[in-house]
Design goal:
This is Glycosyltransferase involved in cell wall bisynthesis. This protein has a seven-stranded parallel β-sheet, sandwiched between helices. Helix 5 links the parallel strand 5 and strand 6. By secondary structure, it is of the alpha/beta class. The longest helix is centred in the N-terminal third of the chain and has 20 residues. The relative contact order is 0.11. Helix 3 crosses helix 4. The protein contains 13 helices and 13 strands. The protein is globular and about 70 Å long.
Length: 401
């Protein structure tokens, strides 16, 4: 039996200038490459701002050229990946912008297959906007396509046309998937003509181990998030201020953009500013960036992980913490709830710092109830390598192949 060739079209992907963007798409493809007869290549178009004159020139050129330049130097390799630029200009009507995007993507695809590698299947990582491109290429080539949704499924910042094209893609895809039960519900609320399979994102359990010897003496609460409003950083800090009034010995760690003590940017120093306003700065540790190979070490210094988001499509950081044996306190944010049971943690309402604080205090009192090995086991059963491989092999195979 020959390999099944799968072309991944991601909505975002690591580039030399943005090495962390879409890194989990790269890690998933790298993990699956060569397993169970799967052979991957990646085609990624990165939108870049162009002047109107240059945009018009590229638009004209796109109608004349049969193919489009692609390069392996524009994106991270392993598996083989090709990148190219998609010109964008805010003054251009979205109908014309979409037309250009579809044309360039199809011609970039034609350049890719000139190498002799022709996919049996196209996998769009997120319908926004990879689903549009995968659908268009499928219509022109009769190659079946699939969509897996990873991000918050809202359309208020999309044009009506772009939103319609995304929904058309979901309806036409041979299979669809979502990274949580809540994400699945969101997709079906917008496009009831599809029935997504739930496939939790890959978290490599070999990179996250339980190390109780690293736990700090003081009960420590940790979170990993950025400064976007939807991530709930201010709610977390307000909750910690309440917790510290009750128990001044508790400490907290915040990882992510917002924890830069040296920056004057309001987004990059949000965690620092807010904690100073509430008088708890000295009780916290703020780490703007932690290298991937050090995340397990930092997580193991804490006793509980908190996810304060308003909405979370999946929650990779939560599963990483669970694989280190940490119990979870999460808002009812969607994706994380798939992993929170009475054995693994507590769920609290969104945007209620007082309730979050009460949950932290209660967890500290009843900490012996939570068994690190059991918490790790549940996360591995959902998101570990064996579970992810089995789900993806099933996703890629269907009867009419």
């Amino acid at each position: 039996m020959s390999d099944l060739k799968v072309l991944i079209i991601p909505s975002w992907y690591p580039t030399p200038k943005q090495p962390l963007t879409g890194s989990f798409f790269h890690e998933q493809a790298q993990f699956l490459q060569g397993k169970e007869g799967l052979d991957f290549q990646v085609l990624y178009g990165e939108k870049k701002s162009y002047t109107l004159i240059l945009w018009i020139w590229v638009f004209v050129k796109s109608r004349l050229k049969p193919t489009w330049p692609i390069s392996t130097s524009k994106v991270r390799q392993g598996p083989t990946a090709y990148g190219f630029d998609i010109p964008a200009n805010r003054r251009v009507p979205d109908q014309l912008q979409i037309n250009l995007e579809k044309k360039i993507f199809l011609k970039a695809y034609r350049s890719l297959v000139l190498s002799g590698w022709v996919p049996d299947l196209i996998h769009a990582q997120s319908g926004m906007d990879a689903g549009i491109y995968a659908h268009h290429i499928s219509q022109e080539t009769n190659i079946p396509f699939l969509i897996m949704e990873h991000q918050v499924f809202v359309f208020h910042y999309y044009s009506k046309l772009r939103g319609t094209l995304i929904m058309d893609a979901f309806q036409s895809a041979q299979k669809t998937a979502a990274v949580s039960w809540d994400e699945r519900r969101q997709v079906m609320m917008n496009q009831p003509q599809c029935n997504p399979k739930v496939i939790w994102n890959l978290v490599d359990e070999a990179q996250y181990m339980i190390d109780l010897g690293k736990r700090r003496k003081a009960f420590t609460v940790i979170t990993l998030l950025n400064s976007l409003f939807i991530k709930g950083a201010e709610d977390f800090i307000e909750a910690m201020a309440i917790v510290l009034q009750y128990d001044p010995e508790i400490r907290f760690i915040m990882i992510g953009k917002g924890g830069d003590k040296k920056s004057s940017n309001v987004q990059e120093n949000l965690f620092v500013r807010k904690s100073k306003e509430l008088g708890i700065f000295e009780k916290g540790e703020f780490l703007p960036v932690v290298p991937r190979d050090q995340i397990s070490n930092v997580l193991n210094q804490a006793h509980v992980f908190v996810s304060p988001s308003i909405q979370e499509p999946h929650g990779i950081a939560v599963r990483e913490a669970m694989m280190c044996g940490l119990p979870i306190i999460s808002t009812a944010n969607g994706g994380v709830e798939d992993s929170v049971t009475p054995e693994t943690g507590l769920v609290v309402p969104v945007k209620q710092p007082e309730t979050m604080a009460a949950a932290i205090i209660a967890m500290k009192k009843n900490y012996s109830r939570y068994k690190p090995e059991r918490i790790r086991e549940l996360a591995i059963n959902q998101c570990g390598k064996e579970a992810f491989l089995g789900s993806m092999v099933d996703f890629y195979h269907f009867e009419n192949q």
